[in-house]
Amino acid sequence: MLLLKDKLKEQLALDLDAKTIRVIDKLLNYAVGLEAVEIRFEPEAEKLAVIFSADGEVKNRISLPKKIEPVLINGLKEMAKADRPDSAAGKFKKDYQGYKIIFSLTVRPTAAGERMIIDISRENFELLGIGRLGLAGKNLAIVKNNLAKRKGLTLVIGGFNSGRTTTLYSFFNYLNKPELNLATVENSIAFDLPEINQSRLDPISGYDARQAMNSLRRQDVDAAMIGEIVDRATAETAMHLAQAGHFILAGFYGHDFTSALSFFQDLGINPSLFANNISLVITQRLVDKNCPHCLSRQRLGQDSYRRLEEKLSLKKIFSKLKADKIISEKISQLEDLSFYKSGGCPRCKNSGVAGKIGIFEVLEIDSEVKKLLNTGHFSAIQGEVKKQGSYSLIEDALIKALNGIISIEEVFALIDNS
């Protein structure tokens, strides 16, 4: 158990009453027991909503009396040393069953009160290897080759709860070698990476994106990770660092590469600066994994094949899957393809789901793509993905469905939302 009350005042110099400590104890223990990665405290007019999330989904939501809100929020801020006027973020660690849990919190004022988000991570947690993210085959080979070169800007694009942060950390941890000078610029530090200079943006205290990017220049880093590109100063500095021979790994909040291109265009970034320094673009989403303990084979009806055909040109992808040896040469027609679904069992609590996995689209910025970027022919870029032999997000999901990793329903959900 996370026993905050044991020697709490002595260790943290806190002045919290026993009731507040008990409430904090219970909330944190409950979150860890749920394997939540985030707790959100949302102030409302007559209550305080506490939301526990994991794998991009709300695991539970509870309501607390409004009267406890000030002491609870202030107590957590005090523990995280985020109660100073110049600080709206902080962290604290507690022991739990032989290892430490890191609670990193940020606070933002709202009309109803202070909104707090606590990110939960395990100290020295083993990051996913890049082969376990969901990258496979040619996509994985391209990514590894790009990381080995350590040149240019690699952009990882994804929306909220797309797994983008995990991918960034996994890639950067893959680069982590003693002889390299590595640094990060992040809005919040989700994982502590050993031997890497990690910096968290704190605009309230004056450490904003411009200052952070300038510090990367002064450090003469071999490689840098930028959690998210959100403004022109960050974008231009990232490009110039890449131009100077540094490897830059950056996140971008967006739906696809086209949305990123529009954003950089709106910022007034010189197209040639962008085209000549970006080396790889990865777009990703998270989908539910099948539970491997209750898988059963399923065949699709004609209506399902028609839905797939409308979006994917199944006959072409059928031939490509054979050429890439993803499906057997013995399969002579689409109707012979098998898909899999998990019916639910005690191991997955009858949900049929065993966590999340990424689906990816990977685009190398070769000479042909550079031409399209320089001339503004963005609509033709998707064609280059196919020319390179890469798979789209939906095609990657289809491959995972054929391999039993995800259900065909996840593919249809992507089709419906595309």
User: Strand-and-helix sequence, N→C?
Assistant: HHEEEHEEEHEHEEHEHEHHEEHHEEHHHH
Principal-axes shape call:
globular
Helical segment tally?
15
CATH architecture of the largest domain: 3-Layer(aba) Sandwich
Query: Structural class of the helix and strand makeup?
Result: alpha/beta
Sum this structure up briefly.
With 418 residues, this protein is an alpha/beta fold.
Structural write-up:
The chain is an alpha/beta fold. The chain has two domains: 8-122, Beta-Lactamase (2-Layer Sandwich), CATH 3.30.450.90; 130-288 and 353-417, Rossmann fold (3-Layer(aba) Sandwich). The protein contains 15 helices and 15 strands. The strands form three sheets. A seven-stranded mixed β-sheet has the order 9-8-10-11-7-12-15, sandwiched between helices. A six-stranded antiparallel β-sheet has the order 3-2-1-6-5-4, covered by helices on one side. A two-stranded antiparallel sheet has the order 13-14. Helix 6 (209-219) packs parallel to helix 7, helix 7 (232-243) crosses helix 9 (271-277) and helix 10 packs across helix 11 (314-323). It is globular, with a radius of gyration of 24 Å. Residues 1-15 have low confidence and may be disordered.
